[in-house]
Amino acid sequence: ALVFKIVTDPYVGRLAYIRVYSGTVKKGATYLNATQESRERVGRLLHMYADHREDVDEIHAGDIGAILGLKQSFTGDTLSDLNNPIVLETINFPDPVISVAIEPKTLADQDKMSVALQKLAEEDPTFKVRVDEETGQTIISGMGELHLDILVDRMLREFKVQANVGSPRVAYHETITREVPEVDYRYVKQTGGHGQYGHVVLKLEPLESGSGFVFEDQIRGGTIPKEYIPAVEKGVREAVEGGVVSGYPMTDLKVTLLDGSYHEVDSSDMAFRMAAIFAFREGAPKGKPVLLEPIMKVEVVVPEDHTGEVLGQINSRHGNVLGMDVRPGNAQAIHGEVPLAEMFGYATELRSATKGRGVFTMEFDHYAPVSDAVMKKVAGL
After folding, report:
1. Which tens digits make up the pLDDT trace of 218-262?
2. Which residue segment(s) compose the domain that 28 sits in?
3. φ/ψ bin of 344: left (φ > 0), alpha (ψ from -120 to 50), beta (otherwise)
4. Do 105 and 164 touch, CB atoms closer than 8 A?
5. What per-residue string of b and e applies to 197-231 under the rule 16 or more CB within 10 Å gives b?
6. Could you tell me if 211 and 253 lie in one domain?
7. Distance between CA atoms of residues 273 and 166, nearest Å
8. Is pLDDT above 80 for 380?
9. Is 367 in contact with 251 (CB distance < 8 Å)?
10. Which of the four pLDDT bands, split at 50, 70 and 90, describes residue 18?
11. Shared-domain flag, residues 105 and 166
């Protein structure tokens, strides 16, 4: 069975909606969450009918139902028989592209806000919550302005939490555009007693768009003992998260650990972690780093006599018009790609230009390098 939705019900608690693909799910039985590799016990089984629910003892293949009592199962997880584990094809969710800072209006809302955000994040895998280590602010991230507006509204309606929301920030990424064949860094620190010694040789290379970050260990002959390799990877991942252009996370690159050396007494996990961080920070600027911005696939449906105005709006927002098609009712659908940073406030502009008759939808498509002007603006130059 596949868990395809998590809902927090104010009366019964956490509901996991499932679709059964083979066999039978029984009330009170224990099953394996093959995705998380954990056991889950079915508390209650429910058939959902809009505004009312019906308790059942079992759900058969082809049925959709809801389970009460699952603690570690999330959207996209597979539940299977303990003796016949199987993982169904999971659901892939895009990374968030927009972030805003959020804070409770009163101290009384502080604890309630934490609970509300946790429950909303469990329900919606495209919604992420984190605390900024430098500012201490709570940052929420989602797929667009409307997405975050709805979640903040739900916090008020369902959880009675009042919150102040900051201005939206685009989730830029960074990457390198050329290979750095070798970065040799030796981290040596001598203090009283044991010193610190870590030596790594890294290779950095760009990958195709959408590949993410890849770390590869090519150490041969034990020049760095196996127990220190995870520390090197951890250091590289930390450095990747901090970026080198404007402090945004880096993506679409591969880091290979080629060589290094260690000291019998002075080497430690921390020394190799620090060596990896400094080696990456030294090497990444040599790879001609660039800033990447999220590009949104946009569809605008407008009356035919407003087509020219909308085409002008898309062009003025540094977008590309990909095509148009005719819709019923003397309307035109305009398809294009526009940087997310240029789409803030577009709903108001479109409404005023089309006398309220134009509508648009957008979804994340890909990341692309920004222009020099945008790079200077984001970097604060």
Report:
1. 888 888 888 888 998 999 999 998 888 888 889 999 999 888 888
2. 2-80
3. beta
4. yes
5. bbbbbbbbebeeeeeebebeeebeeeebeeebbeb
6. yes
7. 35
8. no
9. yes
10. very high
11. yes
